Amino acid sequence: MSLALVHSRARAGVHAPLVQVEVHLSGGLPFTQIVGLPEAAVRESRDRVRAAILCAQFDYPARRITINLAPADLPKEGGRFDLPIALGILAASGQIDRNALASYEFIGELALTGELRAVDGALPAAISAANAQRCLIVPPGNASEAALAQHAEIKVARTLLEVCAALSGSKQLPDAQVPPTETAALADLSDVRGQQHARRALEIAAAGGHHLLLLGSPGCGKTLLASRLPGILPEASEEEALESAAIASISGRGVDSSRWRQRPYRSPHHTASAVALVGGGSHPRPGEISLAHNGVLFLDELPEWNRHALEVLREPLESGTVTVSRAARSMEFPARFQLVAAMNPCPCGWAGDSSGRCRCSAESIRRYRARISGPLLDRIDLHLQVPRLAPSELRGDTSAGESSAVVRERVMQARTRQLQRAGKANAHLGQAETLRDCALSTAEGDLLEQAMERLQLSARSMHRILRVARTIADLAAETAIQRTHLTEAIGYRQLDRGGVGGEG
To answer: C-alpha angle 190/191/193, rounded to 5°?
Structure first.
C-alpha cells in the first residue's frame, strides 16, 4: 500500500495541535498536490521537498502524490511541515520504514540541500509531543528552546539524511540540551533615593500582584521606580516560566533559553496601537500584554496613549486573557500581567509642584486627566502621587534605601501566605474569595462605607481596596485586616478623589 502517516504539530496561539501528514501515491501523471487548508508557504514546500529529497540521494517518485494535512479545517502555515512531508513521501515510496514513524513527531523547514532550518513555536510543540508520549525531532536552531520542556524527549537532527538514518537505526540522534541558565543583574531598589512612600507602594504592588499608577512631575523618578519592580517580584515558578517562554516562542522573537526563568518586563512606546498591545495579524500573534504574561507591563505617559489602545486593556486586566478574532480564525492568548503606568499631573507636568511654575488652567488639567477613563482607573489598585525630591536628597553621599534583596524577602513571605490561604495572589481573588479572605470587623466596615460614600467609589474599587488591605496585612504578618491596613489602602485611591476620568 502506497500510504504513509507522519505526525507533526501546527501553531495555533500558544497551543500546538496535532497534524497528521498523510501521503498517498497513485497512478497517473507525475504531480504533487497538498490539501488541508495550506497557505502559500506550505504549498511551496513541494518544491523544497523535491530538491531536498534528490540532494539526499533518494528518488522522488514519478507518480501522482496526494498530501493531506489533517485535520482539514485547521489552517496550516509556514515551512514547519517540510520535514514530515518529505518523510511521508519517502515512507510511502518504500525508501524508509513507515512503521518507524509511529513513535516520532517532526517539525522543521527544509533547505534545498536537505538541511533543517528552525521554525516558530518549537516549545509548544515539545510540550504537546510529550503529552502524547512521542519523541520530537527538531532542527538545531530549535534545540535549546524545545529542551526547556524538560519532561519531553527531544532529538536534534541537522539534515534530512540524518533523520532517515536515525529511523533506520544506523545513527543515534543527540538529545537537545538546555543551555546554562544565566541570572542577569536586575536594577536594584537601593538606587532610588528618598521616595519612601513610593517604595512602600511598590512593595505592596509586588507582594499582592496589584496594578500601580504613578502620578508625578517630569524627572521625579516614575520610570526609575517602575524598572525596579521586577527585582522585588517572587521568582517565577517553572510552570509560569514555561508559559511566558511559550508565548515568546510563537511571537517570532524567539526565546532566550539562558534567561527563560526571568519574569518579562515590557515597556512599549506610547505611540503603539491597540493591535500592538493585544496582538493581531491575519495569523494572530501575541501583543505586548501577552508578552508581559507573568511579568510587568510598563506604560509611560499614560494620557498620551491613544484612547482606543488604553480601553482594550480593560478586559485583560480583569480576566487575564485576551481573545484576538480575525476573519480566518480566533486565538486566545494568556495576559496575566502586572500593569505599572506613569503620567504627569497636567499637560505641562508641574501641577501641584512647590515651584509654582504650572500655568495650566483647571479646565485643561481636567481634560488632560479625562483622557484616562474612569473604568480603566477603577481597575488599577494603587494610585500614587510621586513628589519631586529636594536637591539635598539627590546627593551621592545620602544614605541608600533598602536593597531589592531585602524587600524581595518580605514580598516572598507575604506571597507565601497568600498562596497557602487561597492558592493565588491577592490581586487575582474573585469576588467571593475577596469577601471570604478580606472580611472586616464592624468598625472597619463602617470606615470603608464612609470612604466609599465620600469618594464616590464603585463596587469594583471597594473590592480592590479590600485586596490591597489584605496584602498590607500579609506584609505585616497579620491574620486579620486592621484599621491601619484599611486606612493605608484607602489612601492609595488618590485619583478617585480628584474625579479623574471621563465617562466609561
So the answer is: 90
Give the separation between CA 67 and CA 290, rounded to whole angstroms: 35
Contact 239/3 with Cβ under 8 angstroms? Answer: no
Instruction: Give this prediction's pTM.
Output: 0.89
Verify cis geometry, omega within 30 degrees of 0, for the bond prior to 71: yes
Has residue 490 been placed in a domain? yes
Nearest to 232 by CA among 203, 200, 262, 266: 203
Per residue in 447-478, pLDDT tens?
A: 999 998 888 888 888 999 999 999 999 999 99
What is the DSSP secondary structure assignment for residue 355, as one 8-state letter? T
- pLDDT 10s digits, 180-238: 877 667 788 888 887 889 999 999 999 999 999 999 998 888 999 999 999 999 999 99
Domain that residue 54 falls in: 3-168
Return the bridge partners of 280, or none: 285
The size of the chain, in residues, is 504
Q: What CATH number did the domain enclosing 82 receive?
A: 3.30.230.10
Mean pLDDT of all residues in the chain? 90
Q: Which residue, chain included where needed, has cell 464592624?
A: 442
CA angle, 466 then 424 then 446, to 5°: 10
Strand, helix or coil for residue 4: strand
